[in-house]
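notes to self, project folder thing:

trying the whole complex as one job this time. last attempt i did each chain seperately and stitching them together was a nightmare. three parts in total, labels are on each line so i dont mix them up again. if this works i'll redo the older ones the same way
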Amino acid sequence: MSLLWKSAPILKNLVKYVPAATRVQKIHRWVAPTLMELKRREDKLGGKITNPRNTFLEWNLEAELFAFGKRLNEEFDSDLLLQAFTDRSYVIKEEMKQKEIEFNIKMKDNKELAEEGEKFIEQYIQVYLETVLPKFPLEGISGIKAHLTCEETLANISLHLGTKDIILASEYPVDNYILAKTFKAIVGALLRSAGEERAAHFVRDFVITQLQGKDINEYWKIEDPWIMLVDILEKDGIKIEPRLIGEVGKNTLLACYRVGLYVDKKLFSSGFGETVSSAKEVAALEALKKIFGTEDSMAPINFKLQGIQKTVSKQHKQISAS
Amino acid sequence: MSAVKRAQQWATFARTWHIFDCKWQDPYESANVIKKYLMGLHKPIYHPMNDCGDVVVCINSREIALRGDEWRQRAYFHHTGYPGGATWTLAWELHNKDPTMIIKKAVYRAMKGNLQRRHTMERLFIYPGEVIPEEVKQNITNQIRQIRLVPTRLDHIPEEEVQKYPKVMDYPEDYVLK
Amino acid sequence: MSNSNLFLKSGFVRAPLQNGVGRYVCQLQRIVLKFCKSHGGSRGLRDFIEQDLVDFASNNPGVVVYLKPRRHRSPVVVAEYLNGDRVWMNMHNKTHSEITKWIEVLRTQQGDIASTRLRKYQYTDYPSVQGPWTPFTFKDPKLNVAELPNEEFGANNRLPMSATEQLRIMFEKQTLDVKPQEE
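result (full assembly):
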């Protein structure tokens, strides 16, 4: 089926011009066998060869770097930006080549920039999340931060910003680690060239917005929600009572129980489950979400906060001392 | 998927067990109501490919009430597949042989004639009297309302209500009824 | 129903990398204009390059423009997007104004949308505001403790009032009227 995909460009030449509303796909009977034969020959020679973009004739690194900065609406120092895109492996390869020619131009790699960028990203995300989710405890925030700063997420962001073609590395295609490192180096370069506030807005607009539409509670796995809930409410002296408020199909495999948690005889939260105990745990999770202000019906996270917020971490509770 | 989302989905697609008392009800009218619950048409999450039907337990199927002359006139056809294997059974004969068959055939007829029908019919349990197995009884969590009014027998009305009911006139004490 | 048009990739209505939520980033990465300097079919493209290209480049500094003058080749525009799509478009015998409009289309789309079949025309991250339906949502809590089958839940409650009931209510109303007068 993937072969037929590739025949699409060939088909565009074959199909006569017909208005889009009445176009009918006409595939000649020789198309599929031809493509299958081509694929067989390609695989024999070791797979499809894709050339990196910078080996094309139409390539101007300077123009690409300039456009990169302008596309993101940021002013970069051109040397720093080039340094941010140069990977250590590339520098090593260049030095080896230059040894043979005895030609010496020092190329800087992006290690320091990447470290600076990484530190700044972590700090800023921590501060931003603490401001935007005031009632969420610190373990939860570190869970979200770990997800946002993980290699996969940053590599995805950097891929969609167009760094894949510009990166100078020894191997093609570039792997996730180098993409993530380049992104951190770009943030470092922006920090050095344009200042903290612009770098903060950059991180906010590209990294933190990845939380849009996602459920924040998924990034913090709570082992014992009932015990945690009871601990939190004990500190304020509130008693909570679980009660079974609905069941369906008790003797079947698809049994479903609904447990409600009552505070002062008023329903606080309810949860469903396959067994009564699992329903109680889910009800406790829902109650915790309500306490932390991160329920499904919460107001969407504000992605428009300007500048760098001051930390008010005293308000944030740390659940476990260990 | 987080635990809460899984639990939410489990609850949304949970299968409820309904009970329906067929006493003095027309099987064909009740079949229209029962089929809705069996197919899942009463749920906002209905989709024909969704398998969202509920279980319905019918009790007192021996006490169903066919209309007018139907007990004597309605005939159920069956062919064994072999030559000369056609039988026409009248409703009262069928009911005597198996009191659950009439309502079962009525529900089968009310449903859409697609390949889902046989599978959906598996979800229908019919019991001729009030006796239900204990496991089935424990599963039941909802009751479907009947369609026809079941009139109370005059001698089944409690005494106090009879005394309280307003009378226009009453016979004198020494009146003798003939 | 089924994916009968196997040649089109299918997708949902999404913005790559949450584009508008933070800042807006123009998804067009680079545009390559290949034309012939003398052939008549490239006239429109040549006019575009002479008149509108510099304005285009200065208005969109984030797009890299490459020019490839090749003899005896038909005019072609290849647009490359940030999500990796390459859109190849033949501009042979197209007029200047047509080319301007097509370039505008290429500039504002977010990838090769012509080759993507939309599975649905809407997308939402929050399909339910009040919470998804469960069988418990509109259930009477009295059913939890009721012993089923129960007359209260089984009898039809939508029947019109019977004559017996009407008479009884008429009588009660009458007695209420009578009593105050007696007092």
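what i see at first glance: The longest helix of chain C spans residues 163-182.
need to look closer tmrw
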